[in-house]
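Morning run. Coffee first, then this:
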Amino acid sequence: MLKKVGLGLLVVFIVCQFFTIDKSVPEHTKEEDFFTHHVATEELQILIESACYDCHSYKTEYPFYSNIAPISWWLAEHIEDGRKHLNFSKWTTYSDKKADHKLEECVEELEKGEMPLEEYTYTHAEAKLSEEQRELLMIWFKAQRQQYKVN
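And here it is:
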């Protein structure tokens, strides 16, 4: 009986591999990207790209396990949700008020230690932020809000 259950699970797992995730990049232009409108030091840009861009832009670098269902389904859903909340690749489509709010949320998420997600940093060590890096990012994001201040 146990052998049949194991075989059944194996068949289901194999069939799942035929249902791949969509890794296509939606249409956008380089001019819409966050760093086209916000000048950062190279260190800051690398920090933001390595800690945020995989889930919050169209510059996602998919890891090897993104090809293995059902993990790939969870990953795709997570990325879709991340882009829905904040998408650095579509930055210029935000109104000034919305862009200001997104920067405010970046600061809040960093302050609470909720971003980058802990489960993301397990497999992406470069995204794990030290307290100094968090503080640096919070100061920089706060400074960027000045260009969006709306009465």
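The radius of gyration is 19 Å. Good start to the day.
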